[in-house]
């Protein structure tokens, strides 16, 4: 029995997420921790967050999404009302401009990247 997600599926999800961010098709979930996450990462606003996410996803795509995947097998489903039932895609990636490993989690919904969380990895 094949356990999801496969390396091919992970690669496709990362590429899809990157394409949505590049085209401007993204949404940030309302998160009470968003401001503190932005501050922790040294980011001024959502535009800087999107730039970081694109850099991280590019890094994940280059390194091999199956090596960076940090989610469940199969992927967990969201309980957040806005994205209830959608699969959550979690990855860890090095932040090139600092000595941090960043944990990021997102969902994909009808042609859109949905940002769930992004912060320094806390193993």
Detailed description of the structure:
Helix 1 (7-23) runs antiparallel to helix 3 (46-63). The N and C termini lie far apart (30 Å). Strand 3 (100-108) and strand 4 form a beta hairpin. A four-stranded mixed beta sheet has the order 1-4-3-2. The protein has helices at residues 7-23, 34-41, 46-63, 65-68; strands spanning 26-28, 89-95, 100-108, 113-120. It has four helices and four strands, in the order αβαααβββ. It is an alpha+beta fold. The mean pLDDT is 91. The chain is globular.
Helical run tally: 4
- How many β-strands, per DSSP? 4
Distance between the termini: 30 Å
Shape: globular
Major β-sheet profile: 4 strands, mixed
Unreliable residue runs = none
Averaged pLDDT: 91
Descriptive terms for the model:
alpha+beta; globular; 123 residues; 38% helix; 4 helices
Task: Please outline the helices and strands.
Blueprint: H1 7-23, E1 26-28, H2 34-41, H3 46-63, H4 65-68, E2 89-95, E3 100-108, E4 113-120
Parallel strand pairs: 1-4
Antiparallel strand pairs: 2-3, 3-4
Helix pairs in contact: 1-3
Summarize the structure.
The chain is of the alpha+beta class and 123 residues long. It is 38% helix and 22% strand.
């Amino acid at each position: 029995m094949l356990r999801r997600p496969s390396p091919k599926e992970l690669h496709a999800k990362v590429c899809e997420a990157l394409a949505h961010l590049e085209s401007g098709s993204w949404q940030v979930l309302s998160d009470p921790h968003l401001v503190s996450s932005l501050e922790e990462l040294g980011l001024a606003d959502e535009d800087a967050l999107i730039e970081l996410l694109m850099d991280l996803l590019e890094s994940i795509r280059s390194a091999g999404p199956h090596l960076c995947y940090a989610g469940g097998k199969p992927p967990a489903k969201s309980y957040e009302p806005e994205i209830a039932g959608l699969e959550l895609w979690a990855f860890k990636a090095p932040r090139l401009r600092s000595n941090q490993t960043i944990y990021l989690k997102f969902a994909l919904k009808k042609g859109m990247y949905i940002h769930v969380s992004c912060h320094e990895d806390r193993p």
